[in-house]
Amino acid sequence: MARRERLGGPRRAGDFVRHFVAWAEENARTHHCTVVVRDDRVIGMAWLAVVQRVPTPRAPRRASGDLRCVYVVPEARDGGLGGRLVRAVLDEARELGLERVTVHSGSRAVPAYARSGFEESPRLLHARITRA
Prior knowledge:
33% helix, 132 residues, alpha+beta, globular
């Protein structure tokens, strides 16, 4: 498995899996996970982080989302699973009544997100925070 090799072997992979499971449990209230399963094995996942927004007089309950960590195992890539995951997350966002979903992407994935309806926004700004 390519991912396990990059983690430094089975022991490091096991450590990461334990850490990841603990993180998922700790963040279950704000992060929704969508998975693709094939032959009882998870081969893809995408996370939707839901953030409650400050209420306004016209909208006392507001939330937005951030699409995070869309991942498909290497051997299952280029078959449309990533796009299916993104569309499933956007469907969930609609069901949750979110105002918008953002995604932070590497340049290689921008066309894939654009095919699912993401657009560039001149109003979305970010500041890089560096550690002192």
